[in-house]
Amino acid sequence: MAQRRFIALATLAFALAGAGIPVARAQPRPAQLQAAGSEIAFTTRQMGVPVEGKFGRFSAQVALDPKQPEGGSVSLVIDTASARFGSAELDAEVTKPTWLNAAGFPQASFQSGSIKATGPAASTSPAG
Questions:
Q1: For residue 44, how many C-alpha atoms fall within 13 Å in the half-sphere facing its CB?
Q2: 10 Å Cβ neighbour count for 18?
Q3: pLDDT tens-digit profile of 56-87?
């Protein structure tokens, strides 16, 4: 389960970082994720069958200057009790201790340790 959480969190962090959220150039300031237009979806396997779900409540902040990504940061907090599969039976099970243990771990969080450029897009700027 921890691996699924990490994959979901890492996926969101990279998606947010690549979304081009506008921030200040000299000193990146955190931009708050607009939850109304965002989602965190995940896929797990139950008895070998892929099952898709979503988290309904989460928040994230991204501070990123694409020209200086090493000065940026990503922070994400997910309400584990908000996990939904779209089935009342699965939704009731997912918060129990055998899955997310929402009572013991009400939040899953991710804080970037570092961000670095991995391609030429970070070192170039659009012509204009």
A1: 18
A2: 12
A3: 999 999 998 888 888 899 999 999 999 999 99
Q: What does the chain come to in residues?
A: 128
Give the tens place of pLDDT for each residue, 90-116.
Answer: 999 999 999 999 999 999 999 999 988
State the sign of the Cα–Cα–Cα–Cα dihedral 102, 81, 30, 42: positive
Write the DSSP assignment of 36-97 as a string of letters: GG--EEEEEEETTEEEEEEES-EEEEEE--TTSGGG-EEEEEEEGGGEE-S-HHHHHHHTST
What's the pTM value of the predicted model, to 2 decimals?
0.66
* Displacement of CA 28 from its chain's centroid (Å): 19
Q: Name the residue with tokens 């570092």.
A: 114
